[in-house]
Amino acid sequence: MDHIDRWNILEPDQVAVALPDTTVTYRELAALVSRGSGALKGFGVKPGDRVAVWVHNDLQSLVALWAVPRMGATVVAVSSRLDQSEVNAQLDLVDPAIVLGSDALTGRTTHATSSLFDGRPTAPHPHAPDELHSVFFTSGSTGQPKGVRLTWGNHEAAAAAAATVQPVGPEDRWLAVLPLFHLGGFAITFRMFRAGGTVVLEPNYQPARIASLMDSVSYASVVPAMLGTLLDDHPDRFQGPSQALLVGGAPASDGMLATARAAGLPVAQTYGLTETASQVAAALPTDPPGSGAAPLEGVAIEAGSPGFAAPVRVAGPMVSPGYWNEPDREGSLETLDIGHLDENGRLHIAGRSDEMILSGGENIHPAEIEVVLQAHSAVSACAVFGVADELWGERVEAALVLADPTAGPDSIAADVRQNLADFKVPKRWHIVAGLPYGPTGKVDRTRLISLLAGEPAITDPDT
Questions:
Q1: Phi, psi (deg, nearest 5) at residue 252
Q2: With respect to CATH, is domain 356-459 assigned 1.20.1090.10?
Q3: pLDDT per residue over 419-433, tens digit each?
Q4: Rounded Cα–Cα distance for residues 158 and 175 (Å)
Q5: Model-level pTM greater than 0.90?
């Protein structure tokens, strides 16, 4: 019995999912998921098979994500924002029995996600904690898709750990605007269905719509890019969420967190990975900006010490057994993140090893520079990256979205030089109207560098 079936027995009339135009009770959701499992059996899917789901933030995709594991198969979450070649690369990797939700793919057995609603109700397949539940994709340092294997036990442990700092129950509502194909979005559904709460599912991020919902939920989850536009478009005070607004997926500047709190948002920075079934460390809304994230209960984190950042390692029952078609992981997970633990054991992330810039023999983390730039009043958003340079090996460049169009790179560089070593100050500056973001809200640096190639830039006269 999964969590949806359990709450169908305990509180069948409790709202499980709130959509923009309707609500779905646990009784109704349990019936839909049961029929979905039956439809999959009718399609010939067997326990142990993989079923790829072309995921949108809608009821059909949500039912599919829960119906596949319920009947003993492994759900493979595929982003609906990818192009066909990218989707095919992921499908070639996991070789699913069928694909749900996309008729754009050829050469594979495909069914509409809505067809799950026409199946015959079926009993759930019993599952063990170490049984494979799902595969979620994350980008490796090479840009090739890496399928993260996650068990029932991984998801359960992650939800239990999150509940120690974000306690939820049937009375709680969690705003889910993060994409369900991303672990951060799916984890919200697992936490809330485990607790009998309500998932407030939004199809896409519209700042005005999200702002209007903040005072009606207990929790909400966003990435820094979403929070930035929310604050820019709606600077008035907020009345919620009542418990916490979780900010994760990428580092948020202390300035952004302080601005959000001044606007009435109880923001809390979190740290997590696809490989750990979502968050493993979190701050509380009462923690001051810059205080780092405390490891969740049952999580062991190793990193550098203050002043000496090192690769972050994570251990705990929520850590994935490994990537698809790779051996099981032995011991802890070494991430691509670089950071340190302070004297209180709280984690501070400096950046990622696969984004590190090597300039003049110095290792430079873009995130460290971005934090300083984002604190500048004239900067609305920014991204720092390295570009090949004959003299330096790589030179530091920055793309800026200006909050104050009258400000120029010269004055910004002069100000940030007070908080950065000279070798970290960008040598070239690009003023842009906006930054390209990936589906999870992180700046797509590869695409940004490609877009800026050959474009004029401003050279720092002091470098």
A1: -105, 140
A2: no
A3: 888 889 999 999 999
A4: 18
A5: no
